[in-house]
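Ticket reopened. Same input as before:
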Amino acid sequence: MGRELTTPADLDGLPDVPDVLLDAREVSKTFGEQRALDHVSVRVRRGAVHAVVGENGSGKSTFIKILAGYHTPDHGCRITVAGQELPPGTPAESLRLGLRFVHQNLGLIAQFDAADNIGLVAGYPTGPVGRIQVRAQRRRATELLARIGVTLDLAVPVGQLRPVERSAVAVARALDDRHGEIRLLVLDEPTAALPPTEVEALFRVVRDVAAHGVSVLYVSHRLDEILALADVVSVLRDGRLQGTFPVEGLSRDQIVRHILGDALVPKLSTRPDSAPELDGATGLSGAAGLTSATGLDGAAGLNSAASVDGGSRRTDGSRVDSAPRVDSDSSVDGGSGRVDGSRVDRAAGVDSDSSVDGGSGRVDGSRVDSASRVDSDSSVDGGSGRVDGSRVDRAAGVDGGSRVDSGFRRGDLVRPALEVHSLVARYLAGVDFTVGAGEIVGVAGLDGSGRDELAGALGGAVPARGIVIDADGRTLGKLTPRAARAHGIALVLPNWHPASAVREFDVRENVSLASLRRFASGGVVRRGRERQAALDWLADVDIRPRDPAKLYGLLSGGNQQKVIVARWLATRPRVMVLDDPTSGVDVGARAQIYQLLRAQAAAGVGILLCSSDSEDLVAVCDRVLCLVAGRVAAEISGSDVAEQAVLAAISARAGGGLERPTGAA
Amino acid sequence: MITAEPEQAAAAAGGRRGERRPRALAAMLSPRNIAAVYVWLVLIAIFAAWKPDLFLTSVTAKRVLNEYAITGIAALSVVLPLAAGVFDLSIGATIGLSGVLCGWLLGHTSLPPGAVIALALASGLLVGALNSLVVVAMRIDSFIGTLATGAIIAAVTLGVSGDQILTERTSGAFARFAIENTHGIQLPVLYLLILMVVIGFLLEQTVFGRFTHATGYNPDVTRLVGVGVGRIRTLTLLSSGVIASLAGVALTARIESADPSNGPSYLIPAFSAAFLGATQFRHGRFNPWGTVVAVLMLGTGSIGLLLAGAPQWAPQVFQGVVLIVAVGLTVIQGRRKDAA
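Engineering reply: fixed in the latest deploy. New output:
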């Protein structure tokens, strides 16, 4: 590290380069008793894409808001931009020094067109008597959009644009340099509302911006994006900087380990439910106990079961044998194993086949043919120590079987929890499918493919026609929310959705909202009963702190999503339809949501998971329906469920994914 | 189940229970929560110091209660619709209609006062049904819809009264509905208290109340959990019609005459009190307790000003100023807390 170039604080481990644009040193921020940022030092190079990652509540947004001048940092920090000091808490100075921000909600007015939205910040060119010169303003907007390689219809209100186009408008607006040179563009979760296929379009914009010498500070939950886009990544955890690393040569797992920390690991593996005999037999306790305790998914459950299986067969040195397998996928070492799960399980669908192959043919068999179901049973048995302990593990235990092909064949044999015939809605041109009880069926599709309309139609949120048959074989009369409720169909909307929860209500009221009558006698709500039930659900979905009196609007995205899930679990549904349940949700909460879904499936609930994030689908689904232009274009099942396959299928007829599919209207 | 509640709460709160209670109490008493109560107390103190002999008397206290009970009832009428996210701007006209209807029925029929009152209340129910038709069935924005129905109702009222003040049979047996009293406190005060408790119970203790708030905050969520949002809004509009007509009947009985121009003047105080009330006690939720406190505060100030010899227009200026001050206090406190 070229120490000669540095001033005292070579804190971020960055190779020292002369052109540091933003130099933030020792930034702290305390809210009341809580320290949101603790001596964080970050330096951003000129023209670099610098990612900032961390779980919700890790201090990312506080840091950004300090840069924006929205928050005043605690005393003792020093922030300079291109050598000039940024006085704390002054948005105007921040603007003057060339910092520009695109916040997660974009800050656009849906009813205004792109030019009007751009003018909101940059100002409107006006003529005599203050009249806005519409033509000049449009020219300016077009020019700004062209600068990031985007052309769009300026006559359309931005509310009607595609999500990626809206993002582009927000970025274009941020790049308006009428108020001076732009040096740093800060993007806060810019892809949260984007389908994965449109992410690449945004990346092009970001790369283009960086190529023009503007630094980009990029905040995201999606690690793949960071690996694909960023030059450098700073990881925050609990308000502290865990380090700044060059992305090149960095693996996803390493980032995840920094984000979550190793602190979780010992705590989890010492839980009483982590199967002592498993420990003894296999020496894999670290990994196995870990996965089970944190619920890393059926896939991880499968992993551990499989490895345990191998281990118990060979009883010695199995650590060595199976460890490479685990390691190769996930570099499990206690700590990261937990998260890796979310990653690994993906591998489990595809990779682990081969790796298990290497390890032991027997295990391989148990995953593929039904003859060896006995084996898989026994391995699940081995893992069932875990089962008792945490709710999750039940899922993992059962999933060990159901995740693989044989399991999903079993799903076909059970009676269906949901049958859908010729479902028609806006963007849906007649969809037929069945979800078995205990089966997790994914729905993949590009924006406009009908994916979210499918979820909405089943829950009564979107006007639709078609035949829907419930778990008892009864047909829904009309597709209304009330009919869905009556037939045991629950619609879980994403936490960013305006109709997902009552922000002004507290957690208790949001959890009980759909099952309130159960806590009432004679129309009077029994608060004690309601509160207790809410507490129980908060424990089940693992919301921390377990405070039912907290205002929903103040929760993190992950916790909000868990509250929404808890609300619908409380109705004891037969079918859960989920629309994008992991968008804006951090890695840890995401794994927990997967785990909840598995637990529900294990209990016989049919699950339809509509997601724009193929990671979700790969992680938990037995089968994936790929929607193209409002029809099921392909169905991928079992071990074929992989990100590439899904992406290929959904973009099959949609021209590479960037054009709006000309679906049935 | 109710008796089990403190126990469970204690179990859940664990060891922190001890420090929780004083903090909860402090939060409850903070100006952020009950600014109007403090403003009210300050007002009483000011007038007590200014005109101790005139103001600090039971006569003044009773006057405030008796004169502002009807304003209070009018204010309570809009609490339920507002909680459900619906404006009922027709209540002023409804107060006028029911009052004039009483006058007309008393003058043109020989119906006993009880039947007259029942018919007047029924007219309020009918207004509620009309409002529901416009707002819920026809999906016209309630602000515009009830402004329109209010205009129609006001016209009907004028027609029924023949633009006259009706006084026939309005005193005597009928007037007892409002002027009957114990220790100088008239019946409308009792109606106000009963309504306050009933509405408070409905909103805070029942499934209906929870769904009403949910509808007001986010009708889409509420609809998606299977609640009939339209039904909730219809019920609240029916209730506001009936409660407003009760205010109208009480008004006519109390002043022993039916004046078609009387009702509309209650509209603005009613909404002021309901909105001011929402900032009190329940952190932004419309609630009857805060509404009644707000009405009493406005009444105390207005009557205090009149007693102090202020001109007739002074109370109205005062009401506007106080609304801004009390709500402003709450907002400023809230901002400080957010910034902390």
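Residues 229-255 of chain B form the longest helix (27 residues). The CA atoms of residues 43 and 301 of chain B lie 6 Å apart. Please confirm and we'll close it.
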